[in-house]
Specification:
about 180 residues, 1 helix, about 0% helix
Length: about 180
């Protein structure tokens, strides 16, 4: 920005304005655990009784896939440049909004939540995610009696539901154990 100059003067005045950015977008990579607290997989099968079959629900309360749903993830977070808190204990921590993807080609999921980052490198995130679960098709119901045995693929359908998630993520574009600059 030129402030003033005339044709007879050899002096030229310049004013340069610089500001720091409000923050930066950071990409992190991690491990995403989808909890099935709101809705998990349901499995049904047909059981023979007399000359017919009855649709029964399998007990999956202790099933491994209802508590162990872990996927790799890619998350994006906004990290502010200036911190609002002067507390020494919280100096190395940042709170941010997190969005991302759970990477699984059979069951991709979208993540949205809050993240707590340590030195802008190591993060733990909480929020909600979409994921696919199995449930009984609409034309069938529990304890229904049918004339033929029905395969699992004909009994069940996949639907998208929303469940809570926990994500642990690392920023891999620099040393994760170095203090934030």
């Amino acid at each position: 920005l030129v402030i003033g100059s005339d044709s007879n003067s050899t002096k030229k005045w310049e004013l340069t304005l610089k500001s720091t950015p409000r923050g930066t977008w950071v990409t992190t990579y991690g491990i995403n655990h989808v909890t099935h607290w709101l809705r998990g997989n349901e499995y049904y099968y047909t059981d023979a009784i007399n000359n017919a079959y009855i649709i029964r629900k399998e007990d999956t309360s202790n099933s491994r896939d209802n508590w162990l749903d872990i996927k790799p993830s890619v998350t994006f977070r906004w990290l502010p440049t200036n911190k609002k808190c002067n507390c020494p204990f919280l100096q190395n921590f940042d709170l941010s909004i997190v969005g991302g993807l759970g990477i699984d080609f059979k069951d991709p999921n979208v993540l949205l939540g809050l993240g707590l980052s340590y030195n802008q490198n190591l993060s733990i995130d909480f929020g909600f995610t979409t994921n696919m679960v199995s449930t009984l098709k609409g034309k069938y119901y529990k304890d229904q009696i049918v004339n033929v045995q029905i395969s699992e693929s004909d009994l069940l359908k996949k639907i998208i539901v929303i469940n809570p998630f926990i994500n642990i993520a690392f920023r891999l574009d620099k040393n994760i154990f170095k203090d934030a600059e």
